[in-house]
Amino acid sequence: MARTLLCFGDSNTHGTPPIVTRGEAYRRFGADTRWPRVVASLLPGWEVVEEGLPGRTAQFPDPVMGAHMDGRDGLKIALQTHGPIDALTIMLGTNDTKTRFGASPEKITAGIAGLLDIAMSLEMQARHGDFHLLLICPPPVLEQGPIRSDFSGAREVSLRLPELYAALAKARGVEFLDAGSVIEVSPVDGIHFEAEAHLRLGQAVTEAVRRL
């Protein structure tokens, strides 16, 4: 029987290319580029489910993009929609660094803790069984490009997240991957990944999943 991996995240899990012009039409990398599909190609016998929503946060309803950007309800819906799953990856936090949320690194990490608690709850474990969990810290942002005004002050915040996420993962007993150790965000918009970064991240996630 095929095993199932659920990849939960934001636009960088969805596959949004670097933004060249603010307000440009919806775009998405093809299936041969997106990092979850790279994982699928490298893990025979696994079904990979992509649950990436552009703009998603770990904990904040977005006053511009909508209340549904709060990842807590999104994770519950995803876990109740798919399954049973054997492994779950969570990569969120980039959008939480937006200026309009005014969140400290500790506050962002607390939001991630809430997501881990949802995934590890008695309800979800009963629904799916004892699935494995991989927490991925997104790479630090760059305050440049056409959407830099949304992320004023975000780089300093994002630089502190890997250490905090790693400590959280250890405390919760889940696996951890610092994406910033293998890839960087695109200099075009300071937030999204280039195609080559998707490939490298997909390879790193594959190795992490094999160790679960």
What would you say this structure looks like, in words?
By secondary structure, this protein is an alpha/beta fold. The longest helix has 17 residues. It is globular, with a radius of gyration of 16 Å.
Indicate the mean pLDDT. 95
Widest sheet: strand order? 2-1-3-4-5
Q: Major beta sheet, specifics?
A: 5 strands, parallel
CATH homologous superfamily descriptor: SGNH hydrolase
What is the β-strand count?
5
Number of helices: 8
Distance between the termini: 18 Å
CATH architecture call: 3-Layer(aba) Sandwich
CATH fold-level label: Rossmann fold
What structural category characterises the helix and strand content?
alpha/beta
| CATH class descriptor name | Alpha Beta
Helix content: 25-40%
Order of helices and strands: EHHEHEHHEHHEH
Query: How many structural domains?
Result: 1
Q: Give the DSSP E fraction (strand runs of 2 or more residues).
A: 5-15%
Give the overall shape, derived from the CA principal axes.
globular
Low-confidence stretches: none
Nearest-angstrom radius of gyration?
16 Å
Outline the secondary-structure elements:
Blueprint: E1 3-9, H1 11-14, H2 35-42, E2 46-52, H3 71-81, E3 87-91, H4 105-119, H5 122-128, E4 132-137, H6 154-159, H7 161-172, E5 175-178, H8 195-211
Parallel strand pairs: 1-2, 1-3, 3-4, 4-5
Helix pairs in contact: 2-8, 3-4, 4-7
